[in-house]
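Task: sequence design from structure.
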């Protein structure tokens, strides 16, 4: 059981579970932008007009995020204004940074229950960055990746709240091939009808590190699903599990793999990382650095003083204050969210 469970009454402007609430400013819930609009917002005043997205270095303004992405080139920054943006976005192979002006509490990408909210599936390089959004109401593309679907690409997914999405596989995030980095995100309340409530790694490389997973559910693997020659390292993640599950991770059909699973912390001692009857249990790379403990959460899932997970990350890494890294979304070198 968690030491701190804050119940709250859901309302339009609050995202809640039995865990701490994340307040979303009312201004973020007004409609703005949409995937049907592709035009640039005209301006001749020299001042920024009302707009949804901007190509920062080019001084161009757009009434949808996807319209800005369409005209972006490698190296461009797409800056998104606060609001709830009812559109799904696709990076279309570009090494661009798509980021919010004011952070995930006020900047929401709502997928309208019509596929994955964000798709990065066309050989995007590591300079493709998705940062600073609440990503919600996605239902997966091809039944995979409710919130974010990465395939054959090497992006960085950081400082997002990926919450309230669903899919058959990979309720929150789905990674297939490529070498993605998924770091310092809150991955919350996502659902997979089969495997990987929070995240699924299929033949993926890369790094899944310093994330907080909580409230995710799946038939198998509420934390994650890892299968088919995975090489994606799982390091310093904080995992809050439901009490009625048999395992945290669905570890399926590894046909040869090399990955690290280190310094991860789960909330329940009696729930193993993988199912004990799994014939591959002897091969699962738990090197003894992983553990369990009951996290004490404050605002926005930040660890309170004395909580499990503080100073329990990799000993060679530090938080931004110079102390040994904490596990979870605010730990490690990238723990200060912009």
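Answer:
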């Amino acid at each position: 059981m968690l030491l701190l469970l804050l119940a709250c009454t859901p309302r339009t402007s609050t995202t809640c579970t039995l865990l701490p609430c994340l307040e979303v400013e009312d201004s973020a819930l007004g409609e703005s932008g949409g995937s049907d609009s592709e035009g640039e917002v005209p301006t001749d005043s020299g001042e920024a007009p009302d707009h949804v997205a901007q190509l920062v270095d080019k001084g161009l303004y757009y009434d949808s995020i996807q319209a800005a992405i369409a005209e972006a080139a490698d190296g461009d920054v797409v800056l998104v204004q606060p609001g709830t943006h009812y559109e799904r976005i696709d990076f279309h192979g570009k090494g661009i940074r798509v980021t919010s002006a004011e952070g995930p509490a006020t900047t929401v990408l709502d997928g309208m229950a019509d596929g994955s909210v964000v798709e990065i599936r066309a050989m995007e390089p590591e300079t493709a960055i998705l940062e600073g959004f609440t990503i919600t109401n996605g239902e997966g593309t091809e039944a995979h990746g409710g919130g974010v679907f990465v395939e054959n690409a090497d992006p960085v997914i950081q400082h997002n709240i990926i919450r309230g999405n669903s899919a058959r596989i990979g309720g929150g995030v789905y990674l297939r091939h490529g070498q993605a980095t998924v770091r310092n995100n809150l991955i919350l309340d996502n659902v997979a009808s089969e495997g990987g409530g929070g995240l699924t790694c299929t033949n993926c490389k890369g790094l899944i590190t310093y994330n907080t997973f909580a409230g995710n559910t799946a038939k198998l693997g509420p934390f994650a699903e890892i299968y088919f020659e995975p090489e994606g390292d799982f390091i310093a993640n904080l995992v809050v599990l439901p009490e009625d599950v048999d395992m945290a991770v669905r570890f399926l059909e590894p046909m040869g793999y090399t990955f690290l699973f280190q310094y991860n912390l789960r909330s329940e001692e009696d729930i193993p990382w993988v199912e004990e009857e799994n014939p591959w249990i002897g091969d699962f790379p738990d090197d003894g650095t992983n553990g369990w403990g009951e996290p004490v959460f404050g605002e926005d899932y930040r660890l309170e003083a004395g909580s499990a997970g503080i100073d329990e990350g990799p000993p060679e890494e530090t938080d931004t204050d110079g102390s040994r890294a904490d596990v979870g979304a605010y730990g490690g070198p990238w723990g200060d969210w912009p």
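Residues 77-301 form a domain with the Pectate Lyase C-like fold (CATH 2.160.20).
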